[in-house]
From TrEMBL:
Keywords: Membrane, Transmembrane, Transmembrane helix. The keyword Cell cycle does not apply. Pfam families: EamA. PANTHER family: ACYL-MALONYL CONDENSING ENZYME-RELATED. The keyword Ion transport does not apply. This is DMT family transporter. InterPro entries: EamA_dom (IPR000620), EmrE-like (IPR037185).
Length: 305
């Protein structure tokens, strides 16, 4: 008997699409080449406009009600998303990019621990194995660019990883409530706080920079992060964080393809390990779910849609 996609499978597809959509992030940041304070300002302002446009298109006259439904938890989500933005950008400013990505790869482990402690969500053994394998694969991808770096930069990167994991975990405290509209507030907060980082003069982006900013911040990031932020509606926080690692793999390929920065052989092995782990884990869970559905069918219970 053929079944429609389950809620979990829909969550996997939607959440995995998010990192793939935002995967040109690192490439476009290189092409834009703005100081961090200006990049944060335009990133915050344009993403806020993009996120708000998505909310209006999805909700129409219910837009304000959608924001109100998020409540105080939504304010927490907005604050954590803001911290993760600052942590990522400032981490790259003060330490090696490889260090930042390696620390961010620990977000699934942090999310699993936070979910276990605060939400009492137990992760199956296969999830813990996948976390270890993906962390190892990401380490191989960034091995050549990793180093001691700066403790300040490493601290900002850790802040980004903690904020990201805490964001997804906090979303799980309000089952069925879509927190993605609160990313509008997060974008505005980033834009308002970014001038405090300004050093030197301020210049408007040129035509090429403006085009890349619009593509990245007005289109790709709002669409991609809306999908990622909806992930906790369907999946545990640790699994959402795991799927987020797809951006590291595909982002490396974008930079190689368009800028000619060929990854090392270790990076290819690491990317294959991350992708292979996520695919195998999904196939195993698909098989387990189909077995569970057949059991329900045999017992006369309708399967979950």
């Amino acid at each position: 008997m053929t079944h429609a996609l389950s809620r979990r499978q829909k969550g996997l597809l939607l959440t995995a699409a998010g990192p793939l959509i935002i995967s040109p992030d690192a490439l476009l940041i290189k092409l834009i080449d703005l100081p961090d304070s200006q990049m944060l300002f335009w990133r915050g302002l344009l993403t806020a406009i993009g996120f708000f446009t998505i909310v209006v298109l999805r909700s129409g006259r219910r837009t304000w009600a959608v924001f109100r439904r998020c409540g105080l938890v939504g304010l927490g989500v907005a604050g954590l998303f803001t911290l993760s933005n600052f942590g990522f950008v400032l981490g790259n400013h003060y330490t090696k990019g490889g260090n930042v990505l390696m620390i961010l790869a620990g977000a699934p482990l942090i999310a699993a621990l936070l979910s276990r402690f605060f939400l009492h969500e137990r992760q199956p053994l296969r999830t813990w194995i996948a976390i270890v394998l993906c962390l190892s694969g990401t380490s191989l991808i960034v091995f050549d660019d990793a180093g001691a770096g700066s403790w300040i930069g490493n601290g900002f990167a850790l802040l980004a990883a903690l904020s990201l994991a805490a964001n997804f975990t906090l979303c799980r405290t309000r089952p069925g409530v879509d927190m993605s509209p609160m990313l509008v507030l997060a974008g505005l907060t980033v834009a308002l706080l970014s001038p405090w980082l300004a050093s030197g003069g301020w210049a408007l982006p040129d035509a090429d920079q403006a085009r890349y900013l619009i593509l990245l911040c007005l289109i790709l990031i709002p669409i991609g992060f809306t999908l990622i932020q909806r992930g906790p509606l369907y999946l545990p926080a640790a699994e959402v964080s795991l799927l987020f690692l797809l951006e590291t793999v595909t982002g490396t390929l974008w930079v190689w393809w368009l800028l000619g920065e060929r990854p090392s052989n270790l990076a290819f092995i690491g990317g294959a390990l991350v992708i292979g782990t996520l695919v195998i884990k999904s196939l195993i869970e698909r098989r387990l779910e189909m077995r569970w559905r057949r059991t329900l069918d045999n017992q006369g219970f309708p399967p979950e849609a």
